[in-house]
Structure formats: C-alpha cells, structure tokens
Amino acid sequence: MIHWPIHPHSICHFTNDEAVIRNPPTVHEAFTALAKLRQQGKIRYIGVSNFAEARLEEALTFCPDIVANQLPYSLLTRAIELGTLPLCRARSMGVIGYMTLLQGLLADLYLTLDDVPPYQARTRHFNSRRSELVRHGEAGAETETAAALAGIRRIAKEAGMTMPELATKWALAGQGITCSLIGARKMSKLEENVRAATQPLSIDVVQRLNVITQPVLDKLGDSFDYYESFENNRTR
Length: 236
Prior knowledge:
By secondary structure, the protein is of the alpha/beta class. The chain has nine helices and four strands; from the N terminus they run αααβαβαβααβαα. It has a four-stranded parallel sheet with strand order 1-2-3-4. α6 (142-159) crosses α7, α6 (142-159) runs antiparallel to α9 and α7 packs across α8. The longest helix has 18 residues, at 142-159. The radius of gyration is 19 Å and the shape is globular. 36% of the residues are buried.
C-alpha cells in the first residue's frame, strides 16, 4: 500500500534525504515496482491510502486493479463523501475507514474541547493557536465541532448507546465503506466494537447524525488531510 500520493510535500514526511524529496519516484515507477512484487508472489494485492480523486485517477492509469483506498472517515471527518468515496464506489474499490473515533473525540472521553490533550487536538477541527504541536495554521472549526459533539451525545443517550458505539455504527453504515479501523485497549472496548458492527444503525438515526455534523463538513470542506492546512493538502 502506498500511504500518501507521491510528490515532494508528502515524501518529506517519510524521509530527510533531500535527493529523494527533490526527485521522488514517479507514480509509474512506484506502481510498476508493486506490480513486479505481485508477479513474484511477494504481495497479493495493491492498495493506496489518502488518495483524493485526481491522484487516485492518476494511479489507476498505471494500476487499474487497485483494490482498496484507506481514508479517514467518521462523523467529524466526512470530507471523502464530497468526491473520493463516490469515485471508489464507481470503481468497485474497497474503502478502509480510519480515524473512526477521531483520536478519542468521539469516544466521549472529554467533556469539552478544552479537555482534549494537546497532542490529540492537532486536527483542523481545533484552532492552531491551541498548541505548538499544531501545524495547519488555521482557525479551526471549534464552534461547529462542539455543537456536533453535543448533538451526537444527545442522540446516543436517546438511543441507549454509548457515543463510541453510535459513532462506529454510523461509520460502518457509510455507503461504500468496507470496514472501519478502531483501536481497543480493553476487552470491554473490543466487545463494544463487535456489538457496533453486528447491530446496524437505523436510517433515521443516520440521517439525524448527518444533519448534526453537516456544519463541520461545510466548514472544513473537501480536504481530508486533517493535520495540514487546506492549501498544503497532501492528498491532492
């Protein structure tokens, strides 16, 4: 799996070698190498991660049988709905969702955004002035995010579910989502995740959650590189 689209801005996050950063491998070279490994029996399938529409289309010209695109998808990270997810569906490509609970934000671990530890408050949802760890440099979407969390918490209570259970069910209900990645440090959390996967969410609740979280989607736009600024989006 190629984790980010291949260009200097993304390469610099994986190497300090200036020669590689200035002259990264081409998309053709990368996928040719993967195809050779597959022919040798060293890998079975080829996938990508964080490829937005233009980069995915480019990759598909060299490797038309990409089987999966791993993308961030949660109630508060819905940008892929605006283009990339429909493209994956059209190409019959599996989508592996990650950030399902958004660094604990959807796990109901924090009463307010001010309670979120600095290391976990680095996405574009938060004002960049919160911490030196934040690199996106934007004003964030804190008002919209706080309102969405309050609404999600209210619906979870009405439905008799925990917030992470509700958030997981919603993510799995996404059209075109093959599976969702969720961490679990305790057996009780693992069991909760299993319950969420085996008991679907009703369409009515899905639609209510969509409405509640729409302002966050509107504010953050179609960029799903949530740690970089809109202009420095590594997925394009």
